[in-house]
Amino acid sequence: MVNYIEASTAPPKNTGAIRLYDAEAFEGMRRACQLTARCLDALADIVKPGLLTDEIDRFVFDFGMDHGAYPATLNYRGYTKSTCTSINHVVCHGIPNDKPLRDGDIVNIDVTFVLDGWHGDSSRMYPVGVVKRAAERLLEVTYESLMRGIGAVRPGARTGAIGEAIQTYAEAERCSVVRDFCGHGVGRLFHDSPNILHYGRANEGPELREGMIFTIEPMINLGRPHVKVLADGWTAVTRDRSLSAQYEHTVGVTSDGCEIFTLSPGGLDRPGLPSHNG
């Protein structure tokens, strides 16, 4: 049985209950998420061959500090960086280091800022220099998968409708959906209930209700869906070394659909690719 609770009265930990947020909370999330979106916009100007992922990490940290926010990943469960940078066959949680980006790479940059106690969580793919058509197509399919998942969000639907929309489209495009990671509730907590699977059936999962806030962040592979986590305990890669991509938005369920809190103010939700409105 799924329990729903008014967020203002919920304890400050993940109890498994689904929080329902009010208008004031939605405004707090707008501010945090738009700060994250502005940072991701700014990164579009600096991602190029030769850039170290450590330089991306420092940029994110400085951007947050300059705007009164703190990177949520820094020191989270022992993680020592302010962002995740996942390149080519890295599915998620790639750790920034001193290796430079190369022409033809694709890199996911995942940023979460904590602003006034609210978590703004989003990620985008960035093509580095000139990428092959197969990589460009994967970015297109992954972004469209995200937007189709978002399009399924409305009160009365179930979380499985999000997964079904993503899986149906991605697999029709001869790509695969990673099962090992999922979206999640977010707000005052970085990770909260419910889990948002990126595959499934429309009649499965908790009912979506007005006031819920969560991420949708499909990871789509050109090859098979299987992944493995490397010895560092964080970096997840495709087992078959195929390319992987991910886009992520934070959304809030409204009376007639949803609000995307992390939309790019500069129209750069798909940096390096033609403008696309979903």
TrEMBL record:
Is Metal-binding among the key words of this record?
yes
Positions of a divalent metal cation 2 binding:
D121, H184, E217, E248
GO BP: proteolysis
Q: What is its EC number?
A: 3.4.11.18
| GO CC annotation, single | cytosol
Query: Which coenzymes or cofactors are required?
Result: Co(2+); Zn(2+); Mn(2+); Fe(2+)
Give the record's family classification. Answer: Belongs to the peptidase M24A family. Methionine aminopeptidase type 1 subfamily.
Name this polypeptide is given: Methionine aminopeptidase
Which species is this UniProt entry from?
Answer: Rhizobium leguminosarum
Kindly list the organism's lineage: Bacteria, Pseudomonadati, Pseudomonadota, Alphaproteobacteria, Hyphomicrobiales
